[in-house]
Every structure is written in structure tokens, then in C-alpha cells.
Amino acid sequence: MADQFKKDKKLSRQLKKLSSKLVEKAVRELGRRSSKSRGEGVHNARKRLKQLRGILRLVQHGISQKSYRRENRAFRNAGRPLSDVRDADIMIETLDQLIVHFSHQVKAHSFRRLRRILVERRRQIRKQLLEKERSMGKISASLRKAERRIKNWTSISNDYKILMRGVESTYAQGKNEMDTALTEKSDETLHTWRKSVKYLRYQL
Fold first, then answer.
1. Beta-carbon neighbour count of residue 92 at 10 Å?
2. Range of the domain at 188
3. Which residue from 24, 72, 81 is spatially nearest to 50, judged by alpha carbons?
4. Closest to 196 measured CA to CA, from 167, 171, 179
5. Which tens digit of pLDDT belongs to each residue from 142-160?
6. Rounded distance between C-alpha atoms, residue 189 and residue 18, angstroms
7. Which partner for 26 in 40, 45, 63, 133 could form a disulfide, CB atoms 3.0-4.6 Å apart?
């Protein structure tokens, strides 16, 4: 995480400031108007939401469990529809990379129909979300509400030891998920492990 908590300042104040900063960035990305830049805006907004959830995990031992669960749920729900848009982009990008990689074995035109299907699927998903200002507005509004709730937190611990406990918890969870992923070897368990690794990276 590029931002750092400074020990000579109150942790609670820094937490609120950093959270507000990330919400502002996410809302700004969601507000992009041109169709060409909206895909990038969605990608950047999702990263900010993941950073926010990483922060919550980092300080979870210094806030009430009720607050932790509520805000984690709010940021998770805000990111879900954005994931559909990003996944649709990734599927096309991955197909294009495969076409180039295996160009000496398979002709590009063999994948034209599949690519058309994926492009149409992406168009429909974008139309449902990105082209509806109301949908993007609802996501931004939910983030604003979460931001206001965080600003009004009064029971945040200023003990910096909670940060170490947060990192240890994220690491331990990731370690357990790694063991599960290596044992079960499924897409779902690998994806779950990958998310914890990302949260740990954001925290560090």
C-alpha cells in the first residue's frame, strides 16, 4: 500500500482519511463519461474497493465486528457488478493472447465466431451497467454512505498493535487457503487464495 500509517499521529484519524481518499478515487473512476475510458475506470474502481477491504482486514481488531462486517459487505456488494464488466474484458483479452500464442498451430479465423460471442456478451454487460447512469450512481451512493459511516466511527482503537494483528490474521487466512488450494486444486479454491494474497499485498 503506497499510503503509510505514521506512529506520531492518531491511527483513527489516519484510517478515516485514507478510507475517504480511496472512496473518492473509486467514485471519480466510476464517473468517467467516455465509453473508451469507462472500462479502465471500472478496473481502477475495483482496485480501490479491494484496497478498502484490505484496510478493513488490517484494522478489524480495533473496530467492532458489527462495523467490520457491515462495511466489508458494503464494499463487496459495490464491487460485484463491476467484476462482471472486468471479467468480460479479460475473457476477450485472454482469447486474443491465446490466438497469438498458438498462431503457428491454429488459424485466427477459427476463433472468429467465439470472439464475436464474447464481444456481444461484453456489450450486453456494459449496456446493463455502464450505460445506465442510475446503476453507476447507486454504486457511488453506496460508497458515499459507507464513507460517512466510517467518518462517524467513535470506537476505533489507536493502538498500533492492531495493525500487526490484522496482518497476521490475513497471512494466516491466506496460508490456510493455500493449503486448501494445493490439496483440492480447483479454480474456486485458487481464486479464494489469490484474493487473500492481494489483501496482504495491499496491507504491506
1. 15
2. 160-204
3. 72
4. 171
5. 999 988 888 888 778 888 8
6. 31
7. 45
Nearest to 49 by CA among 14, 80, 70, 87: 80
Note whether residue 3 is domain-resident: no
Judge if 165 and 176 occupy the same domain: yes
Indicate whether 121 belongs to any domain: yes
Cell (9 digits) for 200: 496482504
How buried is residue 4: exposed, middle or buried, by Cβ count under 10 Å (0-12/13-18/19+)?
exposed
**Domain assignment of residue 1, yes or no:** no
Say if pTM beats, i.e. exceeds, 0.85.
no
Same domain for 143 and 176: no
Residue 105 gets which letter from DSSP?
T
Nearest to 38 by CA among 85, 88, 95, 90: 85
The grid coordinates of residue 183 equal 490439496
